[in-house]
Fold this sequence. Notes:
Helices cover 25% and strands 33% of the residues. It is α+β, with helices and mostly antiparallel strands and 116 residues long. Helix 2 packs antiparallel against helix 3 (87-100). It is elongated and about 50 Å long.
Amino acid sequence: MSATLTAAARFKLVFFAPTSAVETCKSAIFAAGAGHYPGSGGYTECAWTSLGTGQFRPGDAANPNIGKVGELEKVEEARVETLCVGNDVTRRAVEALKGAHPYEEPAYEVYKIEDF
């Protein structure tokens, strides 16, 4: 591993999306630099995807892509996890996700990863 990659902060980007939008969202974050695994192997587009059921109730001011204001909605969604190396890559990936995701407010999380 090069010293440059070792020194760069690493983050895990986790997001949730309806299954119909997962590939579009992954393509967007990968184009922004997410999913590149540091090391000599040159691995790209690395991610973990698992299925589950998301739920939400849109509030009065919402403009939901799926469901209706005030009604509880349950949707088959995927949880996608990927690695981002560096603050800039992480920020670009989050912005790309927001642009590609069909929901008014996409659910996502960013975790800093410690290197031991």
